[in-house]
Protein backbone atom coordinates (compact mmCIF):
# COMPACT_ATOMS: atom_id res chain seq x y z
CA UNK A 1 0.00 0.00 0.00
CA UNK A 2 1.30 3.45 -0.94
CA UNK A 3 2.37 5.63 1.97
CA UNK A 4 0.64 9.04 1.99
CA UNK A 5 1.78 12.21 3.77
CA UNK A 6 0.04 15.57 4.07
CA UNK A 7 1.67 18.93 3.37
CA UNK A 8 0.28 22.42 3.80
CA UNK A 9 1.42 26.03 4.12
CA UNK A 10 1.57 28.04 7.33
CA UNK A 11 -1.64 29.96 6.59
CA UNK A 12 -3.55 26.81 7.60
CA UNK A 13 -2.83 27.67 11.26
CA UNK A 14 -3.05 24.04 12.38
CA UNK A 15 -2.31 23.98 16.14
CA UNK A 16 1.33 22.88 16.66
CA UNK A 17 0.41 19.85 18.78
CA UNK A 18 -1.71 18.48 15.94
CA UNK A 19 1.04 19.18 13.39
CA UNK A 20 3.44 17.10 15.47
CA UNK A 21 1.01 14.31 16.34
CA UNK A 22 -0.23 13.83 12.77
CA UNK A 23 3.15 14.27 11.04
CA UNK A 24 2.00 17.20 8.90
CA UNK A 25 4.63 19.05 6.86
CA UNK A 26 4.20 22.84 6.96
CA UNK A 27 5.90 25.19 4.49
CA UNK A 28 6.20 28.70 5.98
CA UNK A 29 4.90 31.71 4.08
CA UNK A 30 6.55 35.12 4.53
CA UNK A 31 5.56 38.27 6.34
CA UNK A 32 7.35 41.44 5.22
CA UNK A 33 7.58 44.20 7.78
CA UNK A 34 9.97 47.05 8.55
CA UNK A 35 12.29 46.05 5.73
CA UNK A 36 12.53 42.41 6.80
CA UNK A 37 11.16 39.29 5.12
CA UNK A 38 10.40 36.78 7.88
CA UNK A 39 9.39 33.12 7.70
CA UNK A 40 6.05 32.66 9.44
CA UNK A 41 6.49 30.68 12.65
CA UNK A 42 10.26 30.39 12.28
CA UNK A 43 11.68 33.90 12.21
CA UNK A 44 8.77 35.62 13.93
CA UNK A 45 6.36 34.27 16.52
CA UNK A 46 2.69 35.10 16.75
CA UNK A 47 3.26 36.84 20.08
CA UNK A 48 5.94 39.10 18.62
CA UNK A 49 3.94 39.85 15.49
CA UNK A 50 0.79 40.95 17.33
CA UNK A 51 2.84 42.95 19.84
CA UNK A 52 4.47 44.93 17.01
CA UNK A 53 1.54 45.17 14.59
CA UNK A 54 -0.34 48.18 16.08
CA UNK A 55 2.83 50.28 16.12
CA UNK A 56 4.06 49.69 12.57
CA UNK A 57 4.27 52.74 10.32
CA UNK A 58 3.28 50.64 7.30
CA UNK A 59 0.91 47.70 7.03
CA UNK A 60 2.88 44.44 6.59
CA UNK A 61 2.79 42.65 3.27
CA UNK A 62 2.96 38.91 2.61
CA UNK A 63 4.67 36.59 0.17
CA UNK A 64 4.45 32.93 -0.74
CA UNK A 65 7.39 30.54 -0.30
CA UNK A 66 9.56 30.02 -3.36
CA UNK A 67 9.29 27.02 -5.66
CA UNK A 68 12.69 25.96 -4.32
CA UNK A 69 11.34 25.93 -0.76
CA UNK A 70 8.38 23.80 -1.79
CA UNK A 71 10.74 21.49 -3.64
CA UNK A 72 12.88 21.14 -0.51
CA UNK A 73 9.77 20.29 1.53
CA UNK A 74 8.66 17.66 -1.00
CA UNK A 75 12.19 16.26 -1.22
CA UNK A 76 12.29 15.85 2.57
CA UNK A 77 9.37 13.42 2.27
CA UNK A 78 11.06 11.14 -0.27
CA UNK A 79 11.59 7.84 1.49
CA UNK A 80 8.85 8.59 4.01
CA UNK A 81 5.99 8.67 1.50
CA UNK A 82 5.12 7.46 -1.97
CA UNK A 83 2.49 10.15 -2.48
CA UNK A 84 1.83 13.57 -0.95
CA UNK A 85 -1.46 15.44 -0.75
CA UNK A 86 -0.66 19.16 -0.55
CA UNK A 87 -3.61 21.23 0.70
CA UNK A 88 -2.90 24.92 0.23
CA UNK A 89 -4.26 28.45 0.62
CA UNK A 90 -7.17 29.33 -1.64
CA UNK A 91 -6.11 29.95 -5.22
CA UNK A 92 -8.39 33.01 -5.29
CA UNK A 93 -6.17 34.68 -2.67
CA UNK A 94 -2.65 33.65 -3.57
CA UNK A 95 -0.25 32.10 -6.07
CA UNK A 96 0.62 29.42 -3.48
CA UNK A 97 -0.77 26.58 -5.63
CA UNK A 98 1.06 27.51 -8.81
CA UNK A 99 4.36 27.97 -6.98
CA UNK A 100 3.91 24.63 -5.20
CA UNK A 101 3.27 22.99 -8.56
CA UNK A 102 6.58 24.35 -9.86
CA UNK A 103 8.29 23.00 -6.77
CA UNK A 104 6.74 19.56 -7.18
CA UNK A 105 8.15 19.34 -10.70
CA UNK A 106 11.65 19.43 -9.19
CA UNK A 107 10.92 16.18 -7.31
CA UNK A 108 9.66 13.79 -10.00
CA UNK A 109 10.29 10.72 -7.82
CA UNK A 110 7.39 11.77 -5.55
CA UNK A 111 3.77 11.79 -6.69
CA UNK A 112 2.20 15.05 -5.50
CA UNK A 113 -1.53 15.85 -5.52
CA UNK A 114 -2.19 19.60 -5.22
CA UNK A 115 -5.49 20.66 -3.62
CA UNK A 116 -6.99 24.14 -3.69
CA UNK A 117 -8.50 24.39 -0.22
CA UNK A 118 -10.71 27.32 -1.30
CA UNK A 119 -10.22 28.48 2.26
CA UNK A 120 -7.86 30.14 4.72
CA UNK A 121 -6.79 29.63 8.34
CA UNK A 122 -8.63 26.73 9.99
CA UNK A 123 -10.82 26.46 6.91
CA UNK A 124 -7.66 24.92 5.44
CA UNK A 125 -6.64 23.49 8.77
CA UNK A 126 -9.63 21.19 9.12
CA UNK A 127 -9.00 19.77 5.66
CA UNK A 128 -5.37 19.15 6.57
CA UNK A 129 -6.23 17.54 9.91
CA UNK A 130 -8.87 15.19 8.49
CA UNK A 131 -6.62 14.27 5.57
CA UNK A 132 -3.75 13.48 7.94
CA UNK A 133 -6.04 11.41 10.16
CA UNK A 134 -7.24 9.47 7.11
CA UNK A 135 -3.66 8.93 5.91
CA UNK A 136 -2.67 7.62 9.36
CA UNK A 137 -5.54 5.12 9.12
CA UNK A 138 -4.25 3.85 5.77
CA UNK A 139 -6.40 5.79 3.30
CA UNK A 140 -5.05 6.12 -0.22
CA UNK A 141 -4.39 9.50 -1.81
CA UNK A 142 -7.39 8.98 -4.08
CA UNK A 143 -9.64 8.27 -1.09
CA UNK A 144 -8.38 11.40 0.64
CA UNK A 145 -9.06 13.52 -2.46
CA UNK A 146 -12.63 12.21 -2.64
CA UNK A 147 -13.08 12.97 1.06
CA UNK A 148 -11.86 16.54 0.54
CA UNK A 149 -14.34 17.09 -2.29
CA UNK A 150 -17.15 16.11 0.06
CA UNK A 151 -15.70 18.13 2.92
CA UNK A 152 -15.05 21.50 1.30
CA UNK A 153 -18.69 22.60 0.82
CA UNK A 154 -19.42 21.79 4.47
CA UNK A 155 -16.68 23.99 5.96
CA UNK A 156 -17.73 27.22 7.63
CA UNK A 157 -15.53 29.93 9.10
CA UNK A 158 -16.87 33.07 10.79
CA UNK A 159 -14.96 35.83 12.53
CA UNK A 160 -15.56 39.23 14.03
CA UNK A 161 -12.75 41.69 13.36
CA UNK A 162 -11.91 44.29 15.97
CA UNK A 163 -11.51 46.86 13.22
CA UNK A 164 -11.89 46.98 9.45
CA UNK A 165 -8.69 49.05 9.16
CA UNK A 166 -6.40 46.18 8.16
CA UNK A 167 -8.80 44.84 5.54
CA UNK A 168 -9.08 48.31 4.02
CA UNK A 169 -5.31 48.66 3.89
CA UNK A 170 -4.87 45.21 2.36
CA UNK A 171 -7.07 46.18 -0.59
CA UNK A 172 -8.07 42.55 -1.08
CA UNK A 173 -11.77 42.79 -0.22
CA UNK A 174 -13.93 45.10 -2.34
CA UNK A 175 -16.60 45.78 0.28
CA UNK A 176 -13.92 46.77 2.80
CA UNK A 177 -12.49 49.34 0.38
CA UNK A 178 -15.95 50.90 0.21
CA UNK A 179 -16.13 51.54 3.95
CA UNK A 180 -15.52 55.17 4.85
CA UNK A 181 -12.83 56.11 7.35
CA UNK A 182 -15.36 57.43 9.86
CA UNK A 183 -16.77 53.93 10.42
CA UNK A 184 -13.47 52.18 11.01
CA UNK A 185 -14.63 51.37 14.53
CA UNK A 186 -17.42 49.23 13.11
CA UNK A 187 -16.64 45.59 13.80
CA UNK A 188 -17.43 43.53 10.69
CA UNK A 189 -18.47 39.89 10.93
CA UNK A 190 -17.15 37.99 7.93
CA UNK A 191 -17.69 34.52 6.56
CA UNK A 192 -15.15 32.90 4.31
CA UNK A 193 -16.63 30.31 2.01
CA UNK A 194 -15.67 28.86 -1.37
CA UNK A 195 -12.79 31.29 -1.83
CA UNK A 196 -14.64 34.49 -0.98
CA UNK A 197 -14.85 36.75 2.08
CA UNK A 198 -18.45 37.79 2.66
CA UNK A 199 -19.66 40.54 4.99
CA UNK A 200 -22.49 38.97 7.03
CA UNK A 201 -22.88 41.51 9.84
CA UNK A 202 -21.68 44.74 11.40
CA UNK A 203 -21.69 45.60 15.10
CA UNK A 204 -20.21 48.32 17.26
CA UNK A 205 -19.83 46.71 20.69
CA UNK A 206 -17.50 43.78 21.28
CA UNK A 207 -20.01 42.07 23.56
CA UNK A 208 -22.66 42.36 20.87
CA UNK A 209 -20.24 40.81 18.38
CA UNK A 210 -19.63 37.80 20.62
CA UNK A 211 -23.35 37.21 21.10
CA UNK A 212 -23.90 37.44 17.34
CA UNK A 213 -21.14 34.89 16.70
CA UNK A 214 -22.70 32.45 19.14
CA UNK A 215 -26.12 32.95 17.55
CA UNK A 216 -24.70 32.22 14.09
CA UNK A 217 -22.89 29.18 15.48
CA UNK A 218 -26.18 27.77 16.78
CA UNK A 219 -27.69 28.32 13.33
CA UNK A 220 -25.09 25.98 11.83
CA UNK A 221 -26.86 23.01 13.40
CA UNK A 222 -25.12 19.65 13.97
CA UNK A 223 -21.35 19.74 13.52
CA UNK A 224 -18.66 17.12 12.93
CA UNK A 225 -15.77 19.36 14.00
CA UNK A 226 -15.40 22.78 15.57
CA UNK A 227 -12.49 25.07 16.47
CA UNK A 228 -12.13 28.49 18.05
CA UNK A 229 -9.84 30.83 16.11
CA UNK A 230 -8.40 34.17 17.17
CA UNK A 231 -5.66 36.66 16.44
CA UNK A 232 -4.38 37.20 19.98
CA UNK A 233 -7.89 38.17 21.15
CA UNK A 234 -7.90 39.06 24.86
CA UNK A 235 -11.33 37.47 25.36
CA UNK A 236 -10.79 34.18 23.54
CA UNK A 237 -10.82 32.06 26.70
CA UNK A 238 -14.31 33.01 28.01
CA UNK A 239 -15.58 32.74 24.43
CA UNK A 240 -14.04 29.27 24.18
CA UNK A 241 -15.80 28.18 27.37
CA UNK A 242 -19.16 29.30 26.00
CA UNK A 243 -18.55 27.47 22.73
CA UNK A 244 -17.51 24.33 24.58
CA UNK A 245 -20.70 24.47 26.64
CA UNK A 246 -22.74 24.43 23.42
CA UNK A 247 -20.86 21.40 22.03
CA UNK A 248 -19.67 19.35 25.04
CA UNK A 249 -19.36 16.20 22.90
CA UNK A 250 -16.75 17.74 20.57
CA UNK A 251 -13.03 18.15 21.11
CA UNK A 252 -12.56 21.84 20.28
CA UNK A 253 -9.00 22.93 19.44
CA UNK A 254 -7.89 26.56 19.58
CA UNK A 255 -6.08 28.01 16.57
CA UNK A 256 -4.19 31.28 16.81
CA UNK A 257 -4.13 33.03 13.44
CA UNK A 258 -0.60 33.55 12.17
CA UNK A 259 1.07 36.70 10.82
CA UNK A 260 0.15 36.17 7.15
CA UNK A 261 -3.63 36.16 7.68
CA UNK A 262 -3.25 38.37 10.75
CA UNK A 263 -1.77 41.16 8.66
CA UNK A 264 -5.10 41.35 6.78
CA UNK A 265 -7.53 40.96 9.68
CA UNK A 266 -5.59 42.68 12.46
CA UNK A 267 -5.26 41.81 16.14
CA UNK A 268 -8.10 40.76 18.46
CA UNK A 269 -10.19 38.99 15.81
CA UNK A 270 -12.31 36.19 17.23
CA UNK A 271 -14.06 33.41 15.36
CA UNK A 272 -15.12 29.83 14.80
CA UNK A 273 -14.31 27.25 12.14
CA UNK A 274 -16.53 24.22 11.77
CA UNK A 275 -17.54 21.33 9.58
CA UNK A 276 -21.27 20.83 9.12
CA UNK A 277 -22.51 17.31 9.72
CA UNK A 278 -22.97 15.39 6.46
CA UNK A 279 -26.46 14.57 5.24
Structure explained in plain terms:
The chain has 279 residues and is α/β, with parallel strands linked by helices. The protein has helices at 16-22, 46-52, 67-75, 96-105, 122-136, 141-151, 165-170, 174-177, 206-219, 236-246, 259-265; strands at residues 4-9, 25-27, 30-33, 36-39, 61-63, 83-88, 111-116, 155-160, 187-193, 196-203, 223-230, 254-256, 270-276. It has a six-stranded mixed β-sheet with strand order 10-9-8-13-11-12, with helices on both faces. The protein contains eleven helices and 13 strands. It is globular. It has two domains: 4-152, Rossmann fold (3-Layer(aba) Sandwich), CATH 3.40.50; 154-276, 2-Layer Sandwich (Hypothetical Protein Tm841, Chain: A,domain 3), CATH 3.30.1180.
Summarize the structure.
The protein has 279 residues and is of the alpha/beta class. It has helices spanning 16-22, 46-52, 67-75, 96-105, 122-136, 141-151, 165-170, 174-177, 206-219, 236-246, 259-265, and strands spanning 4-9, 25-27, 30-33, 36-39, 61-63, 83-88, 111-116, 155-160, 187-193, 196-203, 223-230, 254-256, 270-276. The longest helix has 15 residues, at 122-136.
Layout: helices, strands, pairs:
Layout: E1 4-9, H1 16-22, E2 25-27, E3 30-33, E4 36-39, H2 46-52, E5 61-63, H3 67-75, E6 83-88, H4 96-105, E7 111-116, H5 122-136, H6 141-151, E8 155-160, H7 165-170, H8 174-177, E9 187-193, E10 196-203, H9 206-219, E11 223-230, H10 236-246, E12 254-256, H11 259-265, E13 270-276
Parallel strand pairs: 1-2, 1-6, 6-7, 11-12
Antiparallel strand pairs: 3-4, 3-5, 8-9, 8-13, 9-10, 11-13
Helix pairs in contact: 3-4, 5-6
Amino acid sequence: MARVRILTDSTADVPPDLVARLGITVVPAYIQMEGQSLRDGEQITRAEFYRRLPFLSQTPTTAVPSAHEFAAAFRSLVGQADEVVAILLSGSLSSMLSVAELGSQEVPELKVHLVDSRQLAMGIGWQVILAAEAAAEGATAEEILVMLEDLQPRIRILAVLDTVKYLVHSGRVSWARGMAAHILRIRPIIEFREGEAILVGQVRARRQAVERLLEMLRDWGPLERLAVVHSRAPDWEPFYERVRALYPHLEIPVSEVGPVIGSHIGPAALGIAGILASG
